[in-house]
Amino acid sequence: YCGRMMILVIMLSYTGILRPAGRKALCVFCNVESCMCWQQFEVVKGNFSRTFLHVGYHKIAEIPAGACNISIQETKKSQNYLALLSQRGVSIINGNWLINRPGIYAALGTYLTYRRPNEIRSRNGESITAPGPLTEDLHVYLIYQQPFPTVQYEYSMPLNQYLAPEPGTPSAVLPLGE
């Protein structure tokens, strides 16, 4: 024992995952590598489930501007489709009865990854994910064609805009007291 105390400062990233002090990552909030804007956030979760609906578009959720870590998932494979529209009503994915191919779509300041399993044996439903942050509200719809749809969604909302550490705040293992 050398008479010194050691303190380990640990930072949690926007995902809540432990991040070593020296590891670089691209921040989804400010797009800067190894930034110090570590956000406090609230995780919002929702579930849309109905027995029967009229064939057509049905609003599931409205995801607000600023949201990150967006995940929209059909719980099982079906003949229904997920659809996204901007706050202004512009189709992003599967709008106006035109079904888009799975892929990556740039919209609302982020990249949205649209997946639609096409294997006959697959039990997974459609999914849409995006790192965010959104530059405007995102409207999520279900194109209903088959009974018993269930869609789960989740996103993170920053509680404060940017939380920068106080100047001189330690970010590694440092000895206390000499």
Structure description:
The chain has no helices and 14 strands. It folds into two domains: about 1-40 and about 160-178, no CATH class; about 40-160, Sandwich (Jelly Rolls). A six-stranded antiparallel β-sheet has the order 4-13-6-11-10-9, with no helix packed on it. The protein has strands at about 5, 10, 20, 40-50, 55-65, 70-75, 80-85, 90-95, 105, 110-115, 125-130, 140-145, 150-160, 175. By secondary structure, it is mostly beta strands. The two termini are about 15 Å apart.
N/C terminus separation:
14 Å
Q: Specify the number of helices.
A: 0
Biggest beta-sheet profile: 6 strands, antiparallel
Derived from helix and strand composition plus strand pairing, the structural class reads mainly beta
Overall average residue pLDDT: 78
Order of helices and strands: EEEEEEEEEEEEEE
Tally the beta strands. Answer: 14
Q: Return Rg in Å.
A: 21 Å
Task: Name the strands of the widest sheet in spatial order.
Answer: 4-13-6-11-10-9
Subcellular location: Secreted
GO cellular component, one term: extracellular region
Main location: secreted
Protein name: ADAMTS/ADAMTS-like Spacer 1 domain-containing protein
List its traits.
178 residues, mainly beta, Jelly Rolls, 2 domains, six-stranded antiparallel sheet, four-stranded antiparallel sheet, globular, disordered N terminus, metalloendopeptidase activity
